[in-house]
Amino acid sequence: MMNDTELILALIEELDTVEGRTMMQKIVFILRSEFNKFRGFRFSLHYYGPFSRDLADELDNLRLSGLLEEVPMRWGDTVRYDIRLTEAGKRKLRRIRQVPPRNFELMVRIARRLNSRVLSTPRCSRLSTPRADLPRRGIRWLRMNGSL
Fold it and tell me: pTM (2 decimals)?
């Protein structure tokens, strides 16, 4: 079974690029709630939704180890840091590749929808409000709109 770090690497590989640190936090938070994964990351409410210092530290460690890269992208008046695997990260993932979790394909589909800016659409702007029921509301919204 994959540990949290390996699962993060596998998700990023499947997504190719995660559009920003905030999006990565939201993806992991929703997958944590829906699939009982990523239990090592504690989340609290923050400015743009759920935030885990543990996850931020893990992503920093992966970046400093040369397994991830953060690519600065202009996004309006700010800079967004897109997250990608490096070649070293892809090699490591191939070496440690284990059987993915049972629901991995569904996890990837959910992460892809979230990463494609679903949370920034006006119709679902309430999902960007930090609330304890964010995961259930988010998944329900995706299902109702035919995204899953």
Answer: 0.77
pLDDT tens digits, one per residue of 75-123 = 789 999 999 999 999 999 888 877 777 888 999 999 998 888 644 443 3
Which spans in the chain are helix H? Answer: 4-15, 21-35, 53-64, 87-96, 104-115, 134-144
Cα 11–Cα 5–Cα 114 angle in degrees, nearest 5: 30
Contact between residue 81 and residue 21 where contact means Cβ atoms under 8 Å apart: yes
User: Where on the phi/psi map is residue 76: left (φ > 0), alpha (ψ -120 to 50), or beta?
Assistant: left
Q: What is the dotted CATH code of the domain comprising 4-144?
A: 1.10.10
What are the residue ranges spanned by the domains of the chain?
A: 4-144
